[in-house]
Amino acid sequence: MTEPVETHLKDYKRPDFNVETVELHADIFETETFVTASLGVRKSPEAADGVSLLLDGRELDLVSIELDGRVLTDGEYTLEGEVLTLPAAPDAFVLTTKVKIHPETNTSLEGLYFADGTFLTQCEAEGFRRITFFPDRPDVMGSYRCTVSADKGTYPVLLANGNLVDEGELSGGRHFATWEDPHKKPSYLFAMVAGDLACREDTFTTASGREVALKFYVDHQDADKCGHAIESLKKSMAWDEKTFGLEYDLDTYMVVATHSFNAGAMENKGLNVFNSKYVLAKPETATDMDFQGIEGVIGHEYFHNWTGNRVTLCNWFQLSLKEGLTVFRDQEFSSDMGSRAVKRIADVRGLRASQFAEDAGPMAHPIRPESYIEMNNFYTATVYNKGAEVIRMIHTFLGPEGFRKGMDLYVARHDGSAVACEDFIAAMEDASGVDLSRFRLWYSQAGTPKVTVTRAFDAETSRYTLTFSQKVPDTPGQANKKAMQIPVRMGLLGDDGAPVSLTLEGETSLGPLERVLSLSSDLESFTFTGVEKEPVPSLFRGFSAPINQVTDLTEAELIFLMAHDTDSFNRWDAAQQLYANTILGMVAELKKGEPLALSTDLVAAVQTTLTHPTLDKALIAQALTLPSETELGDRMAEIDVDGIHAAREFVADTLAVALKESWRSVYEACKEVGPYRPDTQSMAKRRLKGLCLSYLSRVESPAFVMDAFASAANMTDELAALTVLVGMDSPESDEAMDRFYGAWKGDTLVLDKWFTAQALSNRPGTLERVASLMEHPDFDIKNPNKVRALIGAFCQANPWHFHRLDGKGYDLLADTVIALNTINPSIAARMASGFNRWKRYDEKRQGLMKARLERIKGTENLANGVFEIVSKALA
């Protein structure tokens, strides 16, 4: 195969031509669609004389091409591969092309595609070129007018971006609708939908008094599941007005839900296309996590209206400019709607599980990558989640008021423009007066900084010194990196748990109880005065920076922080460090053949936390959830799959036995009477109840868990019991799976949960069960949700079974990647990343995974995205 071309940031330049107006006519038929595009093109003032216009096109059949109404001859344009070229194009003209496309056979789910009886679009990052010939890049912005026509009986709903300006009947039972978007946008924000959909409507009145129509389009059988999503949208709109002064700018906001979507959702201007997972919910079918996920994703896509749509990107290297910033905004929104502490813990847990692993693997890249082969491969945890942490650090340095001033200036300066990360940083600096020049390294350096902390206490002078050393590890293509600017939000605790004043050496007045230190060198020390007794440090509160912290805190000090730290995140993190230190210590003991024993102090600390009378129950559940086997593996230079599994199971079993009565007592206390309520307090009780049930399943009979399953009054409790049961090798397990399937076989989203529960089971034969489920009539490899629910869950979150020494888990993943390569290359590449850390395992497993990677790489017509993932893994 021809090796794919790599695109580099250093080669970027502004476009030679701008498309100021786009007039689209999409005529949809069952077996083909015709798209006529009239582009109002103008040469950029800085473009050279005689420059050619290049337009991207993929899988398009060109029917005709005209320039200012004149049909072009073969010698006046060229079409080679995926590029249509007009040599020496005029300074200003209208280019009209007509193409034929086949959305009904487009399984990539990019461009215009047909799924579940509906025509849909997905144009980010480079899907618009599958619809018509266009300079498909985010810095080409124009106004769009789109007319869609289709059979009225089959597709009564016709949608596109903006405002509806015309609609009517056509001959042959067809009809049309014309939509006009008054705001300039890049092609990746274009959207179009044709289908037979139910519409749930509501309204929102903006701060300035405008009434906005809210319209959610879903399958008819799902019309009763939109209420929570609609309320989440209204909350998002009100929050953005209050927090950032940003008001919605169109008269209508539309959401379309589909079961066939590569991502979570898409923020197309005024017409968001959503994975139905993040729209549809009612207590019988959705869990608490579903309700929270819907609120967060609805908020995320709405917030993009300003951070991504009104202010967009000059090139795809700047992706984190919109995604990192908008993830930060949706995290803050969700924190304000629920428990800030629990939300922060969940976000950091996800970051450590996915992004830290990415930073340590072959695909490590800065939040602004330097190059890419396939842009879809860079919709990553680094760009999104680490990008959000970078924004959060700016917020920490500037404070809420300074950050808000920076946001105001950023939007005012760049509304309607395509900009770069430097423009955001400059707005923050200019609005606050804070120099962020050193901070810019977070945009260009990959890797998770390792910060080692040492401490010294001088009782005679009452001086306490913290010394921080930082090292940013080498990553592919980057070595010998500079020290980063890192905020350390911290406090000191006395032996009674009370905070100690933080008076830095040289200060004349008493210091605060918490402060933010700024690290910017390889080695820095901070000395606090007036410290009478040696304190316990509470560092990086709220996870103030995305770093790996190395300290010499003892088990006793971690237990102390777990009990007394005023920062909820650090209380949780102390517990996680305790568990990880204990389990990884046991892994080493197992290798030596030594017997295992759990510290009585740790058991007592768990007991104290579990039965704490005032602590937030959701926080208790988080604190008592052991690190996953994947998280524990990330802490090892060579991942010991079997040792981690055995040690973690020993700890869980020991805690279950030692605290059986407490688990049972708390479980009973968390039972609720009455209808399901998706409020923060009720969710917290259900979460803790589910955790208690998982521990009780280790000491109670399967019948006890089966009773919990049978009596569940909502999906949260039902799925919690099912997940526990499926891991128990008993007849009740199979009975529960059959009952669950029988009850929910008509609901595709609930069946995704059924697939995932089985993929995560610890029972013997789980791999064979997963392989057999791929032949199940409700599994469809063309549906990304199904692939993620079954194969993704198994390969990413069930390491003990996936990494079986016979290599069959690796065969399953490799076969799936090869099958998806021709069906949906984007999802194939995502699945292929499951091999990224193959060098972190023992020699036998390394050899097995390497062989599968080489088999994938040798596949004929390998997609660019899969090639990039596999090649970098093997490099």
From TrEMBL:
Reaction catalysis annotation: Release of an N-terminal amino acid, Xaa-|-Yaa- from a peptide, amide or arylamide. Xaa is preferably Ala, but may be most amino acids including Pro (slow action). When a terminal hydrophobic residue is followed by a prolyl residue, the two may be released as an intact Xaa-Pro dipeptide
**Which keywords annotate this record?**
Aminopeptidase, Hydrolase, Metal-binding, Metalloprotease, Protease, Zinc
Q: Which residues form the Aminopeptidase N-like N-terminal domain?
A: 24-189
| All residue ranges annotated as the Peptidase M1 alanyl aminopeptidase C-terminal domain in the record | 556-875
Domain Peptidase M1 alanyl aminopeptidase Ig-like fold stretches: 447-548
Ranges where the Peptidase M1 membrane alanine aminopeptidase domain occurs: 229-439
Q: Which cofactor does it need?
A: Zn(2+)
Give GO terms for biological process. Answer: proteolysis
Which InterPro entries does this one have?
Answer: Aminopeptidase_N-like_N (IPR045357), Aminopeptidase_N-like_N_sf (IPR042097), PepN_Ig-like_sf (IPR038438), Peptidase_M1 (IPR001930), Peptidase_M1_dom (IPR014782), Peptidase_M1_pepN (IPR012779), Peptidase_M1_pepN_C (IPR024601), Peptidase_M1_pepN_C_sf (IPR037144)
Alphabetized NCBIfam families for the sequence: pepN_proteo
In Swiss-Prot or TrEMBL terms, this protein is called Aminopeptidase N
Organism equals Desulfoluna spongiiphila
